[in-house]
Every structure is written in structure tokens, then in C-alpha cells.
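User: Can you recover a sequence for this backbone? Please restate the input before giving your answer.

Assistant: Of course. Working from this structure:
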């Protein structure tokens, strides 16, 4: 039974790797397939994958038609906006864009990557702000517990002394956190304005 399951999984995996079905290979419009692949930003190596997928059907791709379609598709894909999106996402820059559009695409990518780096700065500051707020919340919980000890009828004198000492430390630490928070939020506001300036300059 385990052997059957294993074979089934292997078969499913192999099927998942196929770029085209047998029927698609038999009735393929290789220009259109190339156009679609290029428009999706898939490099020309995809043709080798198509060739492998179609070998079982006894079909050999029309390389010339595919490459013509793929080139046209890349012209649709390798735009300023696509470069901007990839750069902003922090994705690596594709190296297969045609010479006719590479300059515009690269410019978009550089602009996007500049945004990406600035967004990383902002996210790092946001993370630090959240961390300080978390620390303040934690300290406020400890303060509430120690205040309860101070007013509780069941607390001993020693417990009250310890609670009072702890309260002083906690309140001092909260004061430091509050100063850190002011500095971080001011920095965050500034870095957000830098990102806005970057975006405006790129228009």
C-alpha cells in the first residue's frame, strides 16, 4: 500500500512539473505560448521545459515562433511599472529584458529598490516602537501588581517595602521608555516624509 502511495505521489509531482499537457502540445500555437510566457516575465529557458513536456506527445516546439512571441511578451513585461513593482518588493532584477526596453525597466527597478530600502528603515522603526509599547504595557502590569501589594491588608511590611522599591524602579524605567518612544516616533515621522519625498521625486 505504501509503495502505491509513493508511486502516486511521484507521478503527481512529475505531472506538476509539466508546463503543457499532451493536448496543449498537439494543438500549440508556439507564438502565442511564447507571448504569454514573456508577458508573465518567464525567461526563454521555459522553451526547454516545454520541449521536455511535449516530448511524450512526439511534438517538437517551433523555436522560431516561440522566440518571436517571447520577445514580444517581454516588451509587454519589461516596463517601468514592472521594474518599479519588482524593486519595491525587493525582488531580484531579471536579466532577460530586451535592449529596446532595458533602460526604462532598469530605471523603474532602481526607483522601486530605493523605495524598498526606505520602507525597510520605516518598518524597522515601527518594530522598535511596538517593542517599546510592549515593554511599557509589561511594566504597567508589574506596577499594578506592586500597587496591589502596597494596599493589601494581607501584605507584610517587608513585602510592602519590596513592592515600593520595585515601583520606583519600574516608574524610572517607564520614564526612559517614554523618552525613547518620543525619539522613535519623531524619527519614524521623518523617515515617512523621506519616503514621500522619494516617491514625489520619481514622478
Amino acid at each position: 500500500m505504501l509503495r502505491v502511495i509513493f508511486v502516486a505521489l511521484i507521478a503527481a509531482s512529475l505531472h506538476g512539473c509539466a508546463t503543457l499537457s499532451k493536448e496543449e502540445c498537439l494543438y500549440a500555437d508556439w507564438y502565442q505560448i511564447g507571448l504569454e510566457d514573456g508577458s508573465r516575465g518567464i525567461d526563454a529557458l521555459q522553451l526547454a521545459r516545454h520541449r521536455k513536456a511535449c516530448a511524450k506527445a512526439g511534438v517538437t516546439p517551433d523555436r522560431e515562433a516561440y522566440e518571436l512571441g517571447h520577445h514580444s511578451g517581454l516588451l509587454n513585461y519589461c516596463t517601468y511599472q514592472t521594474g518599479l513593482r519588482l524593486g519595491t518588493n525587493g525582488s531580484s532584477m531579471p536579466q532577460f529584458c530586451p535592449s529596446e526596453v532595458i533602460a526604462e525597466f532598469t530605471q523603474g527597478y532602481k526607483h522601486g529598490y530605493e523605495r524598498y530600502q526606505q520602507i525597510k528603515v520605516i518598518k524597522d522603526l515601527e518594530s522598535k516602537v511596538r517593542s517599546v509599547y510592549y515593554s511599557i504595557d509589561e511594566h504597567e502590569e508589574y506596577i499594578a501588581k506592586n500597587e496591589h501589594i502596597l494596599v493589601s491588608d494581607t501584605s507584610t511590611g517587608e513585602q510592602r517595602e519590596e513592592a515600593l522599591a520595585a515601583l520606583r524602579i519600574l516608574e524610572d524605567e517607564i520614564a526612559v521608555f517614554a523618552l525613547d518612544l518620543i525619539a522613535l516616533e519623531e524619527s519614524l515621522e521623518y523617515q515617512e516624509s523621506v519616503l514621500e519625498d522619494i516617491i514625489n521625486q520619481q514622478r
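That completes the design. The first helix runs from residue 2 to 17.
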